[in-house]
Specification:
With 217 residues, the protein is α/β, with parallel strands linked by helices. The longest helix is centred in the C-terminal third of the chain and has 28 residues.
């Protein structure tokens, strides 16, 4: 609570002006502590985004409770931004996730694969001679240093996976349609020039959270 107050004050906001708190969490063990902090220091009951509090979204999933709040939030924002259109959200963060939403606003499911950083981390933690590298878009597919080799492998393996998974989704679920492809997350910028995304919205999850709390309030 003290940390949140300090952040607001540092940004020039009066903590007493806070009216709503929206939380998109995939760490349930912290829910009690975070909720208690806002109750104690802000006298505000926070809104936790969950499957049963998601506006606009219908979920066609074997166990809807398994869908992460971050993915729900991305889907809400995608539907709100592109109503009446099929959408695929690709979130390139810690993990790389695909979320598939029909034109009618139904969440069909998705794909989860290791993110770019996790892939790099796995290499240096499980090999004796490979070191961490900066994650960049390489100039050439063939590296002439070990660092460049790793950078090319990380980038092109991910690019290939993005294209293959999108191709499979389009063929299986969107034959005859052209879905909107939204790129989001910290590593989306790597692939902005590769004709993967229709739109790139780095903070899509925050847009979805804002929509959800506004509807809830």
């Amino acid at each position: 609570g003290l940390f949140f107050k300090a952040v607001l004050q540092e940004k020039g906001f009066n903590p007493q002006d806070l009216q709503h708190v929206a939380i998109c969490s995939v760490v349930p063990s912290l829910h009690y502590s975070v909720r208690s902090a806002f109750l104690k220091y802000f006298s505000c009951e926070p809104f936790f985004l969950q499957v049963d509090t998601a506006p606009y979204l219908k979920i066609d999933y074997k166990n809807p409770q398994e869908v992460g709040a971050d993915r729900i939030s991305n889907a809400i924002a995608a539907i709100y931004r592109y109503p009446g259109k099929p959408v695929i959200v690709i979130d390139l963060g810690t993990a790389t996730t695909f979320d598939v939403i029909t034109a009618e606003g139904t969440y069909l499911g998705g794909v989860i694969m290791p993110g770019v950083y996790i892939s790099m981390k796995a290499l240096y933690e499980n090999t004796a001679k490979l070191s961490p590298v900066n994650i960049i878009k390489p100039q050439d597919v063939l590296g002439q240093t070990t660092t460049a080799n790793i950078q090319a492998g990380l980038y092109y393996s991910h690019l290939g996976a993005l294209r293959e998974i999108l191709g499979q989704i389009n063929t299986t679920y969107f034959s005859g349609q052209t879905p909107i492809i939204i790129g989001t997350g910290g590593f989306a910028y790597l692939f902005e020039q590769d004709s993967i995304f229709t739109d790139t919205i780095p903070e899509l999850v925050l847009h979805g959270l804002h929509i959800a709390v506004t509807k809830h309030a």
